[in-house]
Amino acid sequence: MSYSPPTPPQELPDNVVESLETHSPELLRHIAQYAEALAEYREREARIAEQDDEEELIEERPEDLPDDVPSKATITTKKINDNRYYYWQWREGDRILSKYKGPVNPND
């Protein structure tokens, strides 16, 4: 264990560092526990908000989504022999899977 005081992270605002330096070891431990719990709470809230955003995107999915294509799939366009085609595309693990949807209508 070092006999010199720790160096605060550069990301920590000066006013927070100055405030922490005035507190007892016991209070600093309480602050650390609270800060950890608060960080976990905010991370959880961010994940929930992200899931809500994903669910909203899923609700906006086209009605012509085939049964064997997951709701997370997106529509991509591929050019084959100077013709353009729509494909459903999604990721499963490290693989990207595709399913033919139909030709791109040149009038669209």
Automatic annotation (TrEMBL):
<feature type="domain" description="DUF6788">
    <location>
        <begin position="53"/>
        <end position="105"/>
    </location>
</feature>
<feature type="region of interest" description="Disordered">
    <location>
        <begin position="48"/>
        <end position="72"/>
    </location>
</feature>
<dbReference type="Pfam" id="PF20586">
    <property type="entry name" value="DUF6788"/>
</dbReference>
<protein>
    <recommendedName>
        <fullName>DUF6788 domain-containing protein</fullName>
    </recommendedName>
</protein>
<dbReference type="InterPro" id="IPR046738">
    <property type="entry name" value="DUF6788"/>
</dbReference>
